Amino acid sequence: MSYSKLAMKGAIWSLLQVLAERFTQTVVMLTAALFLGPHDFGVAAMATAPAIIAASTLQSGNQLIVQREEADARFLDTAFGLFIGIGIAAGVVIAALALIFRLLPGYDNIWLMILPTVAAPLSAAVGVVPEGLLMRTFNYRVLAIRKTAGQAIAGVACCAMAVYGFGAWSIVVQVTLAPIISTVISLFAARWRPTAVARLGDMADVSRFSGAVLGVSVLNQINIRSVDVIVGMIAGPTATGVFRLARTVLDLATSLFLNPVNNTLLPIFSRMAGDRERTIEAMWQACGITSLIASVPFVASTFAGPFVADLVFKGKWPHLAETVTVLLISLPFVAMIVPLQTYLVATGRPRLALWNNFFQTIANVVMIAAGAYFGIVWAAGAFSLRCMLGGLALIFVIRKVTPDIRIAKDVVTSLPAVVGLGVVGAVGALTWIASLDLSRLLPTLATTTLALLLYAAITFLFFRARISTVLMAVKSKR
Asked: Which of 131, 122, 63 minimizes the C-alpha distance to 354?
C-alpha cells in the first residue's frame, strides 16, 4: 500500500475515533459543567492537571517504538522497563504534589483528589510498547477503538457521579479510569508480553533518544495543562473552571480539524525520512491542509458562541463565549506548529523540537500568568498570541537548519488565518451596522452561515490546489 493510501487510511480511522471520542467527551464535559458549575470544574482541573501531563507524556513514548528500524524482543523489553520506571517516578512526583497542596491554605480538598490520579501515568506506562507495536503495523482500527472505549466507559462513570452529586470527584474518576481501560485493550490487541527484565545499561542507551522525545511531549503538555493551575492560583478556581471549559472546546476543535491528519504524520514521515525532498513536500502539504481548515471553528464560534453559551448554561459561566472565541484564534498557528514539530522528530532532530517546546513553555507560562491578572479573556488572548509568535519562531528556526525549505510556502501556509480574521471583521461590521441581536436564534444562524460561506468561497478561490489534494486522496482511497 502506498504512503498516501496509508495516510488516508490512518486519517479516516483517526477521524472516526475523534468523532466518537470527542462526542463522548463533549457530552461528558457538558454534563459535568451543568451539574458542577465553574468552581468545582476548576478544582477538578487543578487536581487532575499533573496526572494528565504525566500520562499524556508517557503515551507519546510509542514514538520510540515506531521509529525503531528493527524492534526485537530485547529492545521491546528494554523500552517496557524504561517506561515502567518513568511511570513510577511520575507517580511519586504526583503524590509529592498532593502533599504540597495539603500544606497550602485554601486547597484542603484538592490534595485528596490528586492522590488517586497516580494510577493514570502508571497505566499509561504499561501501554507504551503495545500501542507502539500497533502503530508500527498501521493497525489504526484497534488504535481508534481502544481510546474511544476508554473515554466512553470513563465518561459514563463521570456523568453518573456528577448527576448524583459527587462534584469534582466525577472528573477525577474519569481521568484515572480512561487510560487504564485503553491500556488493557492495547495489551490484548498487540498480543505482546515482556520476556525478560530490562538491563540498566540497555535502558540508559534507549533513554538517550527517548529523553528528547519525552521532553518534547512533557513540555507540550505543560503548555496545555499548566495554565489550569496558573489561572487557578492567580484568579481562583472559578476562573480556572471557565478557562478549562473553553480549552475543552479548543481541544474539541483541534481533534476534529487537525488530529486526523497529524496522528498519521509520524509513521509516514519516519518511512520517508530517507527521501529529504519528498519529506519536506509532505510536511508542507500537511501544514497547508490543516491551516486551511483550522480557521473554520474560529469563524463559526465568533457569531454562534454567545447564543450557544447562553442557551446551554443560562449565564452561569461568565465570559465563556468570549474566551472560547479568543482561544480559537490560535488554531491556524497550532495547525502549522504540529506538522513542523513532527517533521523535526521524524528526521532525527528531536532535540531541536525539545528546545523549541522549552522556550514556548516559558513564554506560555509568563504570558498567561500576566494575562490572568486582567481577566480570563486576557489570559486567552495571551495564549493565542503565544501560539502565533511560537509558530513564526519555529518556522524561522527550521529555515535556518534546513536552507532548502522555501520561505514562500511559510507565508502561503499562514494566509488562511488572515482570511478567517478578515471574514470575522467583515461580518462583524455588518452585524453592528444592522444592529443584529446575536442572543436570538435567527440572527445567529444568519451571521454564522454567512461567515462560513464567505470563508469557503474565498478559500476555494485562492486555495483550490489544497482542496483538490484532499479530494483526490479521498477518491484514491475509495
From this structure: 63
Contacts 24+ apart (CB under 8 A), 450-459: 451/299, 451/300, 451/302, 451/303, 451/423, 451/424, 451/427, 452/296, 452/299, 452/300, 454/423, 454/426, 454/427, 455/295, 455/296, 455/299, 455/419, 455/420, 455/423, 458/419, 458/423, 459/292, 459/416, 459/419
Alpha-carbon torsion angle 281, 287, 289, 291, nearest 10: -160
Helices and strands (H, E) in the chain, number of each type:
19, 0
Q: In this structure, how many other beta carbons lie within 10 angstroms of the beta carbon of residue 112? A: 14
> First CA to last CA across the chain, in angstroms?
13
Q: Parse the chain into domains and list their residue ranges.
A: 1-198, 227-478
Query: How much is the CA Rg of the chain, to the nearest whole Å?
Result: 22
Q: Mark out the alpha helices in 60-139 (DSSP H runs).
A: 62-67, 73-103, 110-114, 119-136
Question: pLDDT (tens digit, 9 = 90+) per residue, 176-212?
Answer: 999 899 888 888 888 888 877 777 766 776 666 666 6
* Cell of residue 297, nine digits: 471553528
Q: In this structure, are residues 234 and 373 in contact, taking their beta carbons and an 8 Å threshold? A: yes
Chain-centre distance for alpha carbon 64: 19
388 pLDDT above the threshold of 70: yes
The mean pLDDT of 29-48, rounded to a whole number, is: 83
Instruction: Indicate the pTM of the whole model.
Output: 0.67
Q: What is the mean pLDDT of residues 104-115?
A: 81
C-alpha triplet 349, 350, 356: angle, nearest 5°: 100
Which cell goes with 192?
505482546
Q: How far is CA 100 from the centre of its chain?
A: 28
Cell 522528530 sits at which residue? 345
For residue 220, the Cα-to-chain-centroid distance in whole angstroms is: 9
User: Could you give the CA distance from residue 218 to residue 216 in angstroms, rounded to a whole number?
Assistant: 6
Q: What is the pLDDT of residues 429-446, one digit of tens each?
A: 998 898 888 878 888 899
* Cβ burial 168-192 (10 Å sphere, 16+ → b, else e): bbbbbbbbbbbbbbbbbbbbebbeb
Long-range contacts of 334-337 (CB under 8 A, 24+ apart): 334/254, 334/258, 334/294, 334/387, 334/391, 335/257, 335/258, 335/287, 335/290, 335/291, 335/293, 335/294, 336/287, 336/290, 336/291, 336/391, 336/394, 336/395, 336/413, 336/414, 337/387, 337/390, 337/391, 337/394
